Automatic annotation (TrEMBL):
Pfam families: Glyoxalase (PF00903). CDD domains: VOC_BsCatE_like_C, VOC_BsCatE_like_N. It comes from the Bacteria. This is Glyoxalase. InterPro entries: Glyas_Bleomycin-R_OHBP_Dase, Glyas_Fos-R_dOase_dom, VOC_core. Residues 10-126, 168-281 form the VOC domain. Signal peptide: none annotated.
């Protein structure tokens, strides 16, 4: 099953603030492997398939560095189509001396790194859903050592040529002030808890291992970042139909959240101030 298309509700494009647009443009094209879809004086739109925006990076006026111990982005996660794609990007990143973390999560195999401003990035591939282990509505995940040699071996004979066209925004992981408030909010938006970690929840729609990660690893009660701070500006949730979106809007409004209408989209903030764009597929 594809967990990033109808009938699921899933994560779409992510918007980031950065300090130096030229530096970010170089990093996201040369290191991560995006193409540039659109470019303005203070904004760049990145894509993997020459048509679908995945990451929008903006340099705000009077930007300030990422503030510590605030709500906002822990990482955005790029989902690659095949394990061999992950093997190729491992070789590419090692060749460029990029500092990497890596984990085997049982449901997926993942790399972790940061952009020049400290914005967290995960790049991963999923194991087949048939091998995921579910018990009473919860999926088994762990943080084990990645068998990087095996992953790289999958890519033997293949050459890195940037992100493959089938790359998706697999999930978003956020720092929040309160897990209970965040859980109620995202449940109203159509997501259910599928895994619990210490001080973290993982939520999904349609039995994915997670579309949204939430944590209070700073200790909880974090303040919101400044408007012009490096970090998450907004991210997108994509709904399969107008009726499903309308139902979700009604539920979050019933919780007291303010939803505003834009052009072909709605805007809302979670209880920790993380901005979300809601739209239909």
């Amino acid at each position: 099953m594809n967990f990033h298309q109808s009938p699921c509700t899933y994560t779409g494009e992510v918007y980031l603030n950065v300090l130096d647009l030229d530096r970010s443009k170089q990093f996201y094209t040369e290191i991560i492997g995006f193409e540039i879809l659109e470019e303005e004086e203070n904004k760049v739109v990145f894509t993997a398939d020459s048509k679908t925006p995945l990451l929008i990076v903006e340099q705000p006026e009077n930007g300030i560095p990422k503030e510590p111990r605030r709500t906002g982005l822990y990482h955005f996660a790029l989902l690659l189509p095949e394990r061999a794609d992950l093997g190729m990007i491992i070789k590419h990143l090692v060749e460029h001396n990029v500092a990497l973390g890596a984990s085997d999560h049982k449901v997926s195999e993942a790399l972790y790194l940061s952009d020049p401003d400290g914005n967290g990035i995960e790049i991963y591939t999923d194991r087949k859903p048939e091998v995921w282990s579910w018990d009473n509505g919860k999926v088994a995940m762990s943080t084990d050592q990645l068998d990087a040699e095996s992953v790289v071996a999958e890519s033997e004979g293949r050459v890195w040529n940037g992100l493959p066209a089938g790359t998706l925004m697999g999930h978003i992981h956020l720092h929040v002030a309160s897990l209970s408030e965040a859980e109620a909010f995202y449940n109203a938006l159509g997501f259910e808890v599928v895994a619990n970690y210490p001080q973290a929840l993982f939520m999904a729609n349609g039995k994915y291992h997670h579309h949204i990660g939430l944590n209070t690893w700073h200790g909880g009660g974090d303040a919101r970042p400044s408007e012009n701070s490096v970090g998450l500006q907004a991210y997108t949730l994509i709904y399969p139909t107008e009726s499903v979106l309308k139902e979700a809007i009604g539920k979050v409004e019933a919780l007291g959240s303010k939803v505003t209408a834009g052009v072909n989209r709605f805007n809302v903030e979670d209880p920790s101030g993380n901005r979300i764009i809601l739209r239909v597929e």
